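Problem 12. The chain below contains 333 residues. Write out its predicted structure in C-alpha cell notation.
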Amino acid sequence: MSIARLKKEIISLMVLFFVVLVAHLVFAKPVILKFGWTTSAGKTDPYAITARQFKKALNEEAPGQFEVQFFPNRQLGDEKEMLEGLSFGTLDSAVITNSPISRIALPFQVNDMPFIYANKQQAYKVLDGPIGQKLMKSLEFKKIIGLGFAEGGFRQMINNVRPIFTPKDVSGIKWRVMPNPVYIGMFRALGGNAVPMAWGEVFTAMQQGTIDGLEIPIAVIYNNHYFEVAKYLSLTNHTYSALGLLVSMRKYNNLTPEQQGAIRRAARKAILAERKMNTQNVKEQIELLKSKGMKVNEVKDPKAFRAKVKTVYEKFRGSIGSKLLNSVLAEVK
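Solution.
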C-alpha cells in the first residue's frame, strides 16, 4: 500500500470517528435524575428551591446531559423511605432533613443539638468546612454521596396553647417532634410532652387536636399553611435545620468523571443560591404569617433555654463522638 493511500485511509478513519463522536454527543440520551423531597413545590419552600436551583445549575455545568425529574410532596415516601431508596439506588437524588439522616449516621446528631448555632454564619462555618465534609463522607458506607448542606432555616415553635417566652411556657404542651431521640430529649428537658410523629400525619393531628403544637422552620410553616391550624409562633431559633443534598452512590458511580464534577459544582452553586433566597423569604414570610392571624413573639432570654437543655449534649456525646462534638463547640465558641 502506498504512503498516499495509507494517509487517505487514516484521514477517512479520523473523519468517521469524528462523525460517530458528534452523533453520540447529539443523540445520546440525558441522564435521568429522579429528585425527591417531602414538602411542597411552593415558590418559597426551601426544599423546592434547592431542587430547582440544583437543576438550573446542573444544566449550566453540563448542558443537555441531565434530565432532573421532580417528585415533591412525599410522592416517593417519607424521608426514611427516600434514604432507603438512595441507599438501594432506586432513588437518584433528594434533599433530606438532617434529623432523619442522623438515624442512619449518628454523628449528624450534632447539627440537631439545641441552640448549638447562635446564628447562620456559625452554621455555615461548620457545615461548609472540614466538619461538614467529614459528616457527608460518613454516608458513603450507606452507599449515599453527600453533596452539601442546603438550608431549611432555624426551627421555631408553633402551638395553640400559649406563646413561648420562657422555658416554663413549653411545659405541659403536647409537641409533635420528629421520631428522633435528640428532639424527644430536647422537649422533655424543656418540660414539654414530646409526641414522635411522621411528617405526613402532622397537619391532620393539629386540626384534630391530637397534638397542641410542633417545631418547624418559618418557610415550612408558611408553604404548608400551618397558619391555618396554629395560633402562636414563637421565634425560639432552637435548632438550625440543615438539609442534606444527597445522591445515590449507585447513580453517581455510573457517571463519567466529568459528570460527577458537574454534579458537585452544581450542588455548591445551588446551596449558595438557596441560602440567600431562603434568608430573604423568611423575613417576608414572618410578616405574611402575622397578616394571616398568627401571634408572633420572640423569647425573652435564650440563655435560660440553653441552660435547660445542657443535659441533652451529654446524653448524646457518645453517639455523636466526643471529639466531633468538641470540635463543633470550639468552632462556634
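Discussion. The longest strand covers residues 232-248. Students who got a different answer should revisit the alignment rule from Section 12.3.
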